[in-house]
Predict the 3D structure of the following.
Amino acid sequence: MKLSEVKLILKKLDIIDFQLPNKELVPSHFHVTEVGKITKHFIDCGGTLRNEETVNFQLWNANDYDHRLHPEKLLNIIELSQNLFGIADLEIEVEYQGDTIQKFGLDFDGKNFLLTSKQTDCLAKDKCGIDNYRNSEEKTKVKLSALNDEPCCSPDGNCC
């Protein structure tokens, strides 16, 4: 989900709820402790130099049960961060503390923001041999009708 989509949704909400992939809600007294731009410069396994930028929201549970983050407050924090950091309309990544710090994608189901599972992937399959390895593992398909009528295991069947 892009930042512009989050901003449009926040303008229509009365309350903000985030739902984890296991369907549990993040406790309602969470805080957004960071909104920022993450820039990642890296080289993939195929030798290609890459640059990725995302917007980061960090959710945190405090012992402050008397306060709840309201949509207009989060919208103000987002707009302030856009002005200070020059944040474009980038994809959102959400950090949340489970057993360890977890990173999620973001979606919306009409009521809740959904924290979606993220997956790693090879970005250079064509250069590092992953596609060739997978293709060599695939078995060749043969039409049964194309086979000889000779029984395979007869003494003159040429199968041994």
Notes: The first strand starts at residue 18 and ends at 19. The CA atoms of residues 38 and 54 lie 5 Å apart. The mean pLDDT is 86. The longest helix spans residues 71-85.
